[in-house]
Amino acid sequence: MPNGIENTNGQPIRATAAQALERMFAAAADDGLPFRITSGYRSFEKQESLFKGYSERDGVAAAETYSARPGHSEHQTGLAVDLDDGSGFAFKSEFGKTRTGLWLREHCAAYGFLLRYDQGEQPVVGYIYEPWHFRYLGTEITLDMRARGIANYEEYAGAEAAPDYVR
Predict the structure, then answer these.
(1) pLDDT by residue (tens digit) across 85-107?
(2) CB neighbourhood size of 105 (10 A)
(3) Global pTM?
(4) Which one of 77, 101, 135 terminates a domain?
């Protein structure tokens, strides 16, 4: 559990990611831009429940643009976090335009995090723009990605773009 960071759902993340997140939070707070965790680790069952609800509400095809099927969510790795600053834009694209969202975009790589589903990357990453979703990869990877101008992990890892789910 990351120390000193409000965690609205009380969800833990892996220890190495938590330590990096604590450092990133301290730097953001020093700049007057503290954030909170709105989502961390999710079990298969939790992801199953979320995806089912989204699919019932919006249809499966729409749900797949913003939510992973159970077994495919980065949250299930314990290395992904959704962040918010209390500005009223939790889980909304407008979060990316807030001072905190802009700070996170600029500084996340220095702490080993990647803004995972960036604007314009949906054809490659498979999901809509989510300026609140950060994935811990470690600074060696994130700083290399930044230096090389690579925006998504698929390209960095040489993976296929937005693979379809096995049906």
Answers:
(1) 999 999 999 999 999 999 999 99
(2) 15
(3) 0.94
(4) 77
User: 3-class DSSP state for residue 91?
Assistant: coil
Check pLDDT > 90 for residue 124.
Answer: yes
**Other beta carbons less than 10 A from residue 57's beta carbon:** 9
Distance between CA atoms of residues 77 and 6, nearest Å: 21
Using DSSP's 3-state secondary structure scheme, residue 127 falls into coil
23: in domain: yes
- Is the same domain home to 89 and 106? yes
Token reading at 76: 């299930």
Query: For residues 157 and 136, what is the distance between their CA atoms, to the nearest angstrom?
Result: 15
Q: What one-character-per-residue DSSP string does 5-32 give?
A: S-BTT-----HHHHHHHHHHHHHHHHTT
Structural domain count, the chain: 2
Shared domain for 87 and 137, answered yes or no, is: yes
Tell me which residue range forms the domain holding 53: 42-77
Q: CA 23, CA 19: separation in Å to the nearest integer?
A: 6
Token code pair at residue 146: 């930044």
Is residue 5 in some structural domain? yes
Residues with a known catalytic role: 130
